[in-house]
Design goal:
Blueprint (H helix, E strand, L loop, with lengths): L1 E4 L4 E5 L4 E5 L5 E14 L4 E14 L7 H23 L1 H9 L7
Antiparallel strand pairs: 1-2, 2-3, 4-5
Length: 107
């Protein structure tokens, strides 16, 4: 079991089987990521390679009014998503290795 803190409100958790995003932004906000695999071709020698990429996901699943507390919470959630997105970009290689090593030895 491992937890990596992304910000005060967001962390990435591993139970050894999968990676999960945990946050305290509220139930109406979905903050997650997806692992996408793409096949690319090296044009120098025409060989194909599989490249993995972690893509952030942000959704609002409930009603959020345009005034008061809801607007503040939405702005805060968007700011946390920006921090999360930057974290995924900065640590892309390390996170892909962590994903590939689930169920194995600790990275």
């Amino acid at each position: 079991m491992e937890i990596r803190q992304v910000s005060d409100s967001v962390a990435i958790y591993s139970d050894g089987q999968r990676l999960q995003v945990i946050h305290n932004l509220g139930d109406e906000f979905i903050l997650d990521f997806d692992f996408q695999i793409e096949e690319v071709v090296n044009i120098d020698d025409l060989t194909t390679h599989v490249v993995g990429d972690i893509v952030p996901i942000f959704k609002v699943s409930g009603y959020c009014s345009r005034s008061g507390e809801d607007m503040y919470r939405l702005k805060w959630a968007i700011r946390q998503f920006e921090i999360f997105e930057q974290y995924l970009n900065d640590y892309q290689t390390e996170l892909v290795e962590w994903l590939g090593n689930l169920g194995g030895e600790d990275v």
